[in-house]
Design a protein that fits this description.
Structural class of chain B: mainly beta
Radius of gyration of chain B: 13 Å
Distance between the termini of chain A: 41 Å
Order of helices and strands of chain B: EEEEEEEEEEE
Helix content of chain B: under 10%
Oligomer: heterodimer
Number of strands of chain A: 11
Largest sheet of chain B: 7 strands, mixed
Largest sheet of chain A: 6 strands, mixed
Radius of gyration of chain A: 13 Å
Structural class of chain A: mainly beta
Chain lengths: 110, 113
Amino acid sequence: GQQVMQIPQYQHVQEGEDFTTYCNSSTTLSNIQWYKQRPGGHPVFLIQLVKSGEVKKQKRLTFQFGEAKKNSSLHITATQTTDVGTYFCAAGDTGNQFYFGTGTSLTVIP
Amino acid sequence: KAGVTQTPRYLIKTRGQQVTLSCSPISGHRSVSWYQQTPGQGLQFLFEYFSETQRNKGNFPGRFSGRQFSNSRSEMNVSTLELGDSALYLCASSYEQGQDTQYFGPGTRLTVL
């Protein structure tokens, strides 16, 4: 069955440092989505990647989809305290179903 | 547009009881998915309903069931509650079924004593 590994599970950074979370699938994906969940909140959609090698940016956030469409990354440049939360990838397989990664919990130390 | 709403927000039950959770999707959205979120297991997919039919199902026992009504509202039922069912249950709606963008509700926090 589909397996989606997300690393690291936890990350503590000083404010201003960069942060990256990785999402890896055992099978080729049709697309991948990223969500952010603030503490005490619910997941909120950030972005969707569909094409092999695709790179998208949202201000300080950069999202990449691997060439083989089996992995993805989310990179945050110069973290701020507002970036605190858990970041989830959601991998879409060819069978029209989503598989959420285990999430990376980001703590930003001011 | 109003967001996804879930009721109740908090629930305390005892082992062996059953519970029904409700979800109202964003107006116009026809797909509703349910997820269980626990600290150790992350977001686990329960099932997806589209046009009143279950389209996808996760790996959960038969104690977990759901349904969708003609107005797209959905309910989830858990029978014979176990301590391990304590979790945040999230509902997400989307316009289309499958891999469309998911809009999550605030969740129902279920505690089983």
